[in-house]
Amino acid sequence: MAKYNVVFVLGGPGAGKGTQCEKIVKHFGFVHLSAGDLLREERQRPGSQYGEEIETHIRNGTIVPVQITCSLLRRAMEESGKNNFLIDGFPRNKDNLDGWNKAMTGVAGVRLVLFFNCSEEVCISRCLSRGEAGSGRSDDNIQSLTKRIQTYHNSTMPIIDHYRGLNLVREIHGEKSPDEVFEDVKQVFAELKL
Ligand code: UDP
Ligand code: MG
Fold first, then answer.
1. Atom of ligand 1 nearest to the CA of 144
2. CB of 23 within 8 A of CB of 182?
3. What is the pLDDT of residues 36-69, one digit of tens each?
4. Model-wide pTM > 0.90
5. Could you tell me the pLDDT band of residue 191, with boundaries at 50, 70 and 90?
6. Could you report the per-residue pLDDT of 85-122, keeping only the tens digit for each?
7. CA pair distance 25, 159, nearest whole angstrom
8. Which InterPro entries does this one have (predicted)?
9. Residue 162 class from Cβ within 10 Å (0-12 exposed, 13-18 middle, 19+ buried)?
10. I need a surface site. Which of 112, 129, 167, 182 has the fewest CB within 10 A?
């Protein structure tokens, strides 16, 4: 058995990944690793050789090379001293998936993929409100969002389909209130035996 248990959490920008992950952490004791947050932290780190490259991708809604993202994830996993992880917002494309499989097979086992399904209109309006409410994110604006949604459709949906083929996807309807959505999430975790 791999040392680490991983649940990937996917869905469009604003689908509710971060909000639901916080609740899962409280109820089920997972460690939450947001790939986007780890990249934003690395971007801010003084002396980072990847700062500019990361910022360009985030603004353009494109995807950072997997070597960078996967090594940030792996380091966070090792440093946590824990075994059960929610990895939020990764893998987003074929390069992410291949890089993860190459580096992490035998180290981490993907137990489930939680997929928050949410319409484009709801996703856009949530991210724009988040931007207006001062998220401080350089990509919560309509130009970046249009590109993020395009990347999600073209590059991330095929990854969700890949895991669907492995029967690992649990799809959650993400448009209700956070508490209502969490009722559905709870049912998924109740059947997960680690
Ligand atoms: N990103 C990336 N690789 C990842 C995760 C995020 O390149 O594995 C970049 C990408 O440019 C993305 C941005 O970070 O558009 C924001 O990602 P985040 O997951 O924070 O956005 P969310 O989907 O939560 O709105
Ligand atoms: Mg997020």
1. 15
2. yes
3. 999 999 999 999 999 999 999 999 999 999 999 9
4. yes
5. confident
6. 999 999 999 999 999 999 999 999 999 999 999 999 99
7. 24
8. Adenylat/UMP-CMP_kin, Adenylat_kinase_CS, P-loop_NTPase, UMP_CMP_kinase
9. middle
10. 167
Q: Hey, what domains does the chain have and what are their CATH numbers?
A: 4-182 (3.40.50.300)
- What is the C-alpha to C-alpha distance for residues 25 and 58, in angstroms, rounded to an integer? 26
Q: According to DSSP H, which parts of the chain are helical?
A: 17-28, 35-44, 51-60, 66-80, 94-104, 120-132, 142-151, 157-165, 178-190
Ligand 1 pocket, Cβ-based, cut-off 6 angstroms: 13-14, 17-18, 35-36, 39, 57-58, 61-64, 69, 89-90, 92, 96, 139, 148
The first and second tokens of residue 193, run together, are 């035996």
Confirm whether residue 193 is marked as ligand binding.
no
